Amino acid sequence: MVQDLLEEWNELSTEFKDLEAVNKIYTDKLEELGSFQNNVLKQLTHQKYRLDQISKTLKDLKKKGGAKEQTEQLENDILKRKIQLQGIEQTLPKKNGIYLRIILGNVNVSILNKEEKFKYKDEYEKFKLVLSIICFIFSLLNLIIIYRPLELCHLFLLVWYYCTLTIRESILKVNGSRIKGWWRLHHFVSTVAAAILLIWPENKAWGLFRYQFLIFNGYISTVQYLQFRYQQGVLYRLKALGERHNMDITVEGFHSWMWRGLGFLFPFLFIGYFFQLYNAYTLYQLSFLPSTTWHVPVLSAFFLFLFIGNTVTTIMVIPNKIQEKMKLQYNIMSQRLSSQFLINDDTESDSTKQD
Prior knowledge:
By secondary structure, the chain is an all-alpha fold. Helices cover 84% and strands 0% of the residues. The termini are far apart. 14% of the residues are buried.
């Protein structure tokens, strides 16, 4: 029995030596990776500096009006090179922003693997879906049952949800997401608004606003579910097409099939925005009640701010998307016409040969 144990121990010791050897190679590769990253970063910085210098000189040449064809070609080459450098930059770790440094310190949150980036973005969307469903259930329960601890649990969940979103979106930003600054600011403001709702005392003003807010929250949860369906469709189809920027919240590269989803989504979004305006108006009216606390006018201002920001940002997106759609249709028509001309030329050449 003891002999068998000794044999197992010797076998395990041999395997441990193999483990040590593999681990040594692994640690050496990690150090080598760090040196390669620093080398690439230095060369990338050098390329950007030289490109800036060339761009400035090119602008001076264009003002003088000399060699138009060459300057235009060089300008296009510089633009292509900047896009290539952006692609290289995506493969390097980035420093955390101020917000992440406050929350997490100097922990490196860069995701270098494309598949892992996609998984993180996918988890982010699923997280929003799960929390939206939970918030919707809480809204229904609070509409049916008037119980203060249940209300506070709902409001605390909203504070935690929006606060977590700000952290997750900051990590997405570090990893190359082109999320618009407004949507990040929107979630920061929503966190503060939810915290004010949490500490709002149970008084007459809250009783008058309670049902309206619960209906609003239930509607927003429904819209977030629709957004999840749209974003997941976009994300998976872009991955299937091999698009590079699969970390995007709002996709910049536009395809015709994206417009159909957005066209369906826009009416629901604008109803939610005008619901925010209605909340701001209701709270403004409630602020004149004798027993009103400071929470009411502050929340009114927050809802008005969110309405203006959401509406303006979404309206600015529409003409850009229409323009991109028209460009896409134009490119498709150009490709069809060029291919048709090629077919005609081939048939004519064939007939000439026969003659």
